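Hi P.,

Sorry for the delay on this. The queue was packed all week, but I finally got your sequence through. Input first:
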Amino acid sequence: MCSLSWKAGLAGAALALSLSLSAAQSPQPYAGLQARAINALSDQQIADLKAGRGMELALAGELNGYPGPLHVLEHANALGLSEAQRAKMQELFAAMKAEAVPLGEQLIAQETRLDRQFADKTITAAGLTAALQEIGGTQSALRAAHLKYHLVTVDVLTLAQLRRYAELRGYAGGDHGQQQNREHQRPK
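Then the structure:
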């Protein structure tokens, strides 16, 4: 009987998994998205772009020991930032935002134009290629605007602060590639 109970439980689990996978693979995964202001961007993405937020664009840096100035400022007390370090982080964050906000606005405008061309049925192969190259260039510039400040942030913090930052952010072990960071070629 124990074997039968185990098999019934396994069958029930398999059925539950099957039903949840069916729901996740709905034939209408985009239903409702056509009502967005810009079909390719959610309201949250638009708000993030307008505000110059990172939107995970700098994860290559963040998750490899290159913190960004905003998150360093959020942990300023726990990191024991000096007044000079705090001022430098505020300066870096302001500069990053000054670059990111106009790029975000530019990306929104480009996505709006692309969306409009599809909605108006005026899109052509050449127009699509041009629009996507333009959007790709802006996305690249936006990502660079975030990542380059992660590079500079490392130069302002001590190794101990970088380790503590990694711990505060929940990155395994607190040794987050900081030794390698100190050995890389610094931008001038």
